[in-house]
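Backbone shapes recur. Consider a single case.
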Amino acid sequence: MLTNCDNFRDMGGIKTHDGHVLKEKKIIRSGKLSDLNDDDVVFLEKYGLKHDVDFRSMSERKNEPDRIPASVSYHFAPVFPVDETRSGNDKWESRRNYYVDEQAAFKDMLDAYNDIVLQDCAKKAYREFFDVLLANDKDDESVLFHCSAGKDRTGMGAVYLLTVLGVDETVIRADYLASNKYLRGQQKKEEVRALQKGEIFAKNIFNLGSVSEHYLDCALGTMAREYGSLGEYLEKELKLSANEQEDLRKIYLK
């Protein structure tokens, strides 16, 4: 495993509703890759990594560029022009409402999840993600997709992929919420720092640094309201055809 990367996990082993299983060493999700050490880079090379899909914004990429093996193809697919989830933002202290409204960050996150569904740049990014997944059709080669914390933009990418592969909604939801377990150490560090500025501020920082069923339900509700369902969203907005969905199942399931 990587020593300097939060929320790193191989998605292999997840089961579909019809008894298939996701292959190991084919699809990986994680947080930012900028802090990898030399051993981490070697680990990824030996692991068979061939594609790195970066969902972060231009400024996030510029400030903390990925460290990856030279043999890996890098794909820049920004979900937002700027980081609406603020996972990579260290200027929370400047947001005055975070000191007086304990729901301020929660509302910001709901807005971000609406935009993940509705914004054209987000649709373009996730379509590029699926293009890379479809091209990764050789055995023992893997795709890694990430943002800053690996929980929101990455989390929705995982929701889309697992839905296409036929994984039950309860399992998809559990995989999404698992980011809270993988990020617990980072969350505690942020809590200690945030409490110095008051409990309301700390509550907002917690909401920024974690995932919630409310966030996921917001995105799914927006899809249902605007497009009919998650499945219709994938087909109509991300232009993922029935044949492409079947190809993805052939590539990633056993």
